[in-house]
Amino acid sequence: MRRPSLTFFFGLAVLCLLTPNSARAQWGAGQCLVPGLSPAAVIELCEDALTIDPTHPEVLYKIGWALSEMGAHLDAVASYREAIRNQPNHPQAHFGLGKSLEKLGRFDEALAAFRDALRLNPENAAAKKRIESLSARIENQKKEEPSRALAAEKKDRKAEKPRKKAALFAERKTERRGESVSGHRKFAAPRPEKRARLDVPKSPKKTVSEGGTFRFAKGKVNKYAVAVIIGNRGYSKNSMDIPNVKYAHNDADAVYAYVTRALGYREGNIIRLRDATQAQLVSTFGTKENHRGRLNNWVRPGKSDAFVFYSSHGVPGLFDGRSYLLPVDADPATPQLNGYPLATLYANLAKLPARSVTVMLDACFSGGSAGGALVRSASSISVVARKPPRTPAGAVVLTAAGMNQVASWGDDVRLGLFTRYVLEGLAGAADRNEFGDDNGKVTLAELGKFLKEEMTYQARRRFGRRQTPELKGNAGRVLSTVR
Questions:
Q1: Which domains does the chain have, with CATH numbers?
Q2: pLDDT by residue (tens digit) across 312-364?
Q3: I want to staple 427 with a disulfide (CB 3.0 to 4.6 A). Which of 157, 214, 371, 399 is the partner?
Q4: CA-based angle 132:134:140, to the nearest 5?
């Protein structure tokens, strides 16, 4: 990129002197610094500008670009669309939107975005090339659809045979039930001469304990609510010494279903991060010096409920004993340099102008994990976190285990043990039996009783380890409505 001229710097200085609070002046400063900055730093500059002018299309476009560079394409799409809403004739925003949609596999939408970019800028050769390649790809997919449908039909027919066989066996067993205890056969109804087509009953939905999904009652739309949902699974691609978190992505998907259905959060108000880097955590939650991350900027003061979920590794610092979230690009031996401090997360969440804050951490900070030790060259005693940081005042905070314990995984339902039982409790189990009052609402106190009885027992029985969840906040706070 060409270095800005002295005339540009002089003009920018005059603009800043004349209009010190102008978002355009801040954006100009961000533009001249972009060549030497990381995407996370670009986001930080742009978000400062958004605090002055939240509808500035150029700033929103640049945030979309930075997010796409970091691989957060779902969030990039939201930023690009916001830029287009404020300036419909922004060709770069349409082009960037098309690239992110293509990365997400939404080819029809991507093709429409590239066509809009070319319509606004007919000289855009890159848009022409993308349109040609995407059109060919979509056409090939349409040609392959019949063969894929035929393959699926064959697969269904193959799966149908054992079901029919089982149904026939059940039918014959029913016909033989005329035999009494004494051995004499009762009169049985005559069998039809020709057996009609078997109506194979559909298998009932599996319960949670059998590996099925959670059934949440649909809650009212909470249009101002904002959530951050993080699932960090893939560590081995950056370091073979760090075990992957086997079901972190599943945990994040299950919690996403909970907040969108039970809590009524809107899809566009959820920041979803898979395999988050340190830069992504910083841009989302801010730093110790600057708490204005994306989450803070998305919150409407006094109107938004904020929800944060993290499923992945936590780790203690070898030298300071503090607790850190572990990004996928971090070194567990030096989290004070490349981890994200839990104390900073809590401190910045405490500064949110939100109506309520809820935090769920399916992580432990003992230096171990269900997949093995994180810091392999140190003794387990030396890496135990000294004490947990202060939680945000007024917030509800749920953590999977004590500071010296390990968070377990549940292979039967392919979820973290903590996430599985939290969601089972919120779906209604914590409101029933000895845990709750069966009034259709699950409170923090009821969920705590359920987890400390069921989850703790399962960890001890199945894995031979102590895992005691920690819940802090208003015990009467309603976390879900089950009917």
A1: 6-135 (1.25.40.10), 215-481 (3.40.50.1460)
A2: 888 887 667 788 898 988 887 788 888 999 999 999 999 999 999 999 999 87
A3: 214
A4: 105
